[in-house]
Amino acid sequence: MVSLRRTFGPRAFMLLPLAVLLALLLLAGLRAGQHAAQLGESDAMAPYVARHVQEGGARTDCSGRPGQGPVWIVLRCEGAAGGAVYDIDRRGGLLARQQIRPRPRT
Question: Which helix H or strand E contains 42, and what residues bound it?
Fold first, then answer.
């Protein structure tokens, strides 16, 4: 019976861990890309709407519009107690948050 070490040589066995590592990195990259490709506008805005609700606002206080450049969505959550404007990127990450002052009562 022919030995694998003789057939492929010792260098092949030294490269095997590197090949396995590269395959794992490729799979991780594909999964991350698939997640980003499937992220919808509602999915991207949901954590920030939930944050607004947690701070005492209502879901209906929030509205989104398209952004420009690196900003994918501009989410504005404004109620009687104030709120915030969230700049969201294509991966759902927060680029900037601007606080909105409460409206004066008239």
Answer: helix 41-54
**pLDDT tens for residues 53-101?**
998 889 999 999 999 999 999 999 998 778 999 999 988 999 999 998 8
Rounded to an integer, what distance in angstroms lies between the CA atom of residue 68 and that of residue 31?
Answer: 27
Spell out a b/e string for 17-32, using b for 16 or more CB atoms within 10 Å of the CB, else e. Answer: eeeeeeeeeeeeeeee
**pLDDT attached to residue 7:** 62
Determine the Cα–Cα distance for residues 2 and 94; give it in Å rounded to an integer: 59
Degrees, nearest 5: CA angle 78-82-87:
55
Q: What does pTM read for this prediction?
A: 0.64
- CA-CA distance, 106 to 32, in Å (whole number)? 50
Contacts 24+ apart (CB under 8 A), 21-30: none
